[in-house]
Write a structure and sequence with these properties.
The protein is α+β, with helices and mostly antiparallel strands and 168 residues long. 21% of the residues lie in helices and 35% in strands. The protein has one domain (10-166): Peptide deformylase (Peptide Deformylase), CATH 3.90.45.10. Strand 3 (74-96) and strand 4 form a beta hairpin. The radius of gyration is 15 Å and the shape is globular.
Length: 168
């Protein structure tokens, strides 16, 4: 398990570099660290920059997560060098949290329908369409790769605060 960087750490604002060596021992070790970390923190997703590694790697997956009790399942995925294609310009607002902003939530507009593609840890191509919560998780994690934290996407900072004060 690695420590998750918190908002304010400048590394979270940097653009990540593409992975060039699939199957490398260092990449396998990074993914193992990310899996251990997301499990320890009960996260829905994690991007490599959140543990201080500036590579375009995200992992996500949701199955009966106590931080997201009403969320539909999202398949466990390792996504390397991801690209997102917007399938519908319609957006919806939803509450988001982030391991880099512990205890906080914000109402964030996201595209409802996307297609994402990238590679798994062995270099195999992954391409899926996603909507709703699944699409939200992918967009959130991929934003980390470009140095974007969810408050930067918010339209109304009055809808941002500590979970216990927001009464969600």
């Amino acid at each position: 398990m690695k420590t998750v960087l918190k908002m304010g750490d400048g590394r979270l604002l940097e653009k990540s570099r593409p992975v060039e060596a699939f199957g490398a021992i260092e990449l396998q070790a990074l993914i193992a660290d990310m899996r251990d970390t997301i499990t320890a923190y009960d996260g829905a997703g994690l991007a490599a920059p959140q543990i201080g590694v500036g590579l375009r790697v995200v992992i996500f997956g949701v199955h009966a997560n106590p931080r997201y009790p009403d969320a539909p399942e999202v398949p466990d995925t390792v996504l390397i060098n991801p690209e997102i294609e917007i399938l519908d310009e319609e957006k919806e607002c939803g509450w988001e949290g982030c391991l880099s902003l512990p205890g906080l939530r914000g109402l964030v507009p996201r595209y409802k329908r996307i297609r994402y593609r990238g590679h798994d840890e062995n270099g195999n191509v992954i391409e899926r369409e996603a909507d709703g919560f699944h699409a939200r998780v992918v967009q959130h994690e991929c934003d980390h790769l470009d140095g974007i934290l969810y408050p930067m996407r918010m339209d109304d900072m009055r809808q941002f605060g500590f979970e216990d004060a927001l009464n969600l």
